[in-house]
Amino acid sequence: MSKFLYLGNGAKPESASVVKVHRYVTPVAKDASCLAVLETFFSNHELYALPVTDAEGMPVALVERQSFIEFFGQPFTREVHGKKTILEFLSNELIMGSTPIIVDVSTSTDDVAQIIIDKGMQHMVSGFIVTEDGRYIGVANGNNLLDEITRRKQAELYYLAHYDQLTGVPNRMLFSDRLTQACREAARKNTLVGLMFVDLDRFKQVNDSLGHSVGDLLLCAVVDRLKDSVRDCDTVARLGGDEFAILLDELKDVVDAEIAARRVIASLQHPFTIMGHELFITASLGIAVYPKDDSDIGRLLTKADTAMYEAKRNGRNAYRTYTAGLSIYSLDHLSLETDLRSAVENDEFVLFYQPQVNLATGQVVGVEALVRWQHPQRGLLSPAQFIGLAEESGLIVPIGNWVLRKACQQVRAWIDAGLPPLRMAVNVSSLQFQQVNFCSTVKAIIDESGVDPDCIELELTESIVMHHGTLVLETLRELKQIGVMLAIDDFGTGFSSLNYLRRFPIDCLKIDQSFIRGIEKMPVNEAIVRAIIALAQSLSLEIIAEGIETAAELAVLKTCHCQQAQGYHYLRPLPADGFVDWLFDYRSMSV
Ligand code: C2E
Ligand code: MG
Ligand code: MG
User: Which residue numbers in the chain have pLDDT < 50?
Assistant: First the structure.
């Protein structure tokens, strides 16, 4: 009995229905190739259904033309946009050449989904039953399977997105959710919520002198002590590095937060024994209380942070509660906003460029434009330091338009200088996307520069695509009509319904860098990346992995058949001149 790849629903239909519909079934030569079968099926409109047979050739299911076309509808519509048809897609060597996952016919959809996730899913030609040597046996509708995989992958992504991988406690995202919830409850019940930031003192020294594995174990041990010093209803979270936060729920009195802070400090007094080393560590704590110090969550966080820095400045191993005198940070914030307004007028922004490399050919195929702010006093600022502020103040709209215009002009300049065409990726923020005239602005800017719209790619975030329902679909369609390419940035962090991928005219997914970091040591991340790549392939989307820093990460991505990569491993973002110099060096090296 030959083994075969089975992707589909294992349920056998009633034998009567098999007989009843048998006359509609395509007569297919037993050893026809997958591609030949499809070609016959699609070119002959009289053929109503494709049979699914088991290894002995017995019919086990039937796929009707309509459901088949619905499933593959997206790749077909892509033809209109100059994308691959499903037939081209299937003849792709990567897909045909990859190793099938071999299971028994009786395996349930559930089991197949798990096997595919565990194996890292080489491909998801959902619905095809192909023998080990690539011969077609039958077709099954893979919708169930796709949904099941999506559901499981979402559960994994949810965990990754909400919990700290090292210590297992909630991360920043889940912490903010819980904080918001707790404050809402407190407002209703008239109670208080304590917010405490905990930053370890001189943790870096431990890492530098004893190594990361000791540092990691110490962080886990610290988390245990933090958890032991608060109540079960309180949340201990890791915000990153050696920073933690504690949510003290339903406090009766402000003093209770101080009592908790003293307990936390006391809990760290005894030494830790880690891999034979006796270690002493202290922490600096900052406290802010809702609603006493602020009723706005964002400002409350800033205030706890400010108090924590004050504790550090005053000699560490101490806690500070927020007081009005400590408002240095919010002042800073205000002056930066004033500066940002004039920055737009004074043209203080610069674009840096980072290459995107095709992994199969090694060629640079695209470039991402990343904005920087040349601040007259503070020097070069990164987006992390001002994009949030630009979004809050609405200034992101003129800044975003400037970025797009500048990026288009750069494409034009490179073409004029004789460089081979590169696709230019430009980030779009949610507020820009929501502007009623967004599409016409994009079109006007591109027209003005005279570049081909299809060499401009707009990077949208998952949240843009998720949050605004049907209006989004219309805007995306309008953008496709202009001819620009559309990518989803930081893919995998939004972990919301992936169904939109099938409905929306997206061209490319950019896998978020958090899945790439240390992928060679993180099987779960590798499995997710493989699943995302397979998902992208089955929907005929391009795929780029972001944030590749090391050769080891790159090697894993190559085995996952990732198409394109971007990251410090190739080049840190540079201004146009530096980028072009690098490009020439890179080309001459790869010849
Ligand atoms: P993004 O669009 O996901 O851009 C990738 C970020 O990762 C860039 O940071 C890039 O410098 C950084 N990066 C690239 N390779 C590596 C790597 O190997 N390792 C590490 N650790 N980082 C790497 P950057 O330039 O600081 O930009 C940060 C974010 O700011 C961008 O994330 C994007 O969301 C936003 N941004 C940048 N430019 C613009 C813009 O013009 N408009 C808008 N709305 N947002 C922008
Ligand atoms: Mg981006
Ligand atoms: Mg990104």
Answer: 1-26, 54-55, 71-87, 89-105, 120-132, 134-135, 137-144, 327-331, 495-497
Q: Give the CATH number for residue 58.
A: 3.10.580.10
In a domain, 330, yes or no: no
Task: Provide the residue range defining the domain that includes 371.
Answer: 351-575
Quick one: 416 exposed, middle or buried, by C-beta within 10 A (0-12, 13-18, 19+)?
Answer: exposed
Please tell me whether the peptide bond between 75 and the residue prior to it is cis, using omega within 30 degrees of 0: no
Residue nearest to atom 16 of ligand 1 (CA): 547
Residues with CB under 6 A from ligand 1: 354, 370-371, 382-384, 387, 396, 400, 403, 427, 429, 459, 489-490, 513, 546-549, 567-568, 573
Q: Are 52 and 25 in contact (CB under 8 A)?
A: no
The owner of tokens 């820093």 is 549
Amino acid letter, residue 196: M
Half-sphere exposure of 351 (CA within 13 A, CB side): 25
Among all ligands shown, which has an atom nearest to the Cα of 352?
1
Taking the CA of residue 573 as reference, the ligand 1 atom at the shortest distance is: 11
pLDDT of residue 35: 54
- Based on the fold, state whether residues 563 and 510 are members of the same structural domain: yes
215: CATH: 3.30.70.270
Give distance in angstroms: CA of 315 to centre of ligand 1. Answer: 35
Q: Is residue 411 part of a domain?
A: yes
Task: Report helix, strand or coil for 424.
Answer: strand
Ligand 1: atom nearest CA of 383 is 30
- For residue 11, give the DSSP letter: P
CA of 403 to the centre of ligand 2 (A): 13
Which pLDDT belongs to residue 237? 96
**Do 133 and 56 share a structural domain?**
yes
Long-range contacts of 550-557 (CB under 8 A, 24+ apart): 552/520, 553/516, 553/517, 553/518, 553/519, 553/520, 554/359, 555/520, 556/519, 556/520, 556/526, 556/529, 557/359, 557/516, 557/519, 557/529
CA of 489 to the centre of ligand 2 (A): 5
Residues 50 and 153 in one domain: yes
Residue identifier of the C-alpha nearest atom 45 of ligand 1? 427
Reduce the secondary structure of 118-171 to three states and give it as a string. HHCCCCCCCCEEEECCCEEEEECCCHHHHHHHHHHHHHHHHHHHHECCCCCCEC
Residues 371 and 311 in one domain: no
- Which atom in ligand 1 lies closest to the alpha carbon of residue 566? 15
* 0.70 exceeded by pTM: no
Which ligand has an atom closest to residue 491 CA?
Answer: 3
Give the C-alpha separation, 176 to 158, whole Å: 15
- The residue whose C-alpha atom lies closest to atom 13 belonging to ligand 1 is 547
Site to substitute for ligand 1 among 389, 402, 427, most atoms within 8 A of C-beta? 427
Question: Is 261 among the domain residues?
Answer: yes
State which ligand 1 atom lies nearest to the alpha carbon of 403.
Answer: 41
User: According to the model, what pLDDT value does residue 154 have?
Assistant: 67
Number of domains making up the chain? 3
Atom of ligand 1 nearest to the CA of 459: 2
| Closest C-alpha residue for ligand 1 atom 21 | 547
Q: Measured from the CA of 548, which atom of ligand 1 is nearest?
A: 18
Distance set, CA 71 to CA 7, 23, 63 (Å): 14, 23, 11
d(CA 181, CA 253): 19
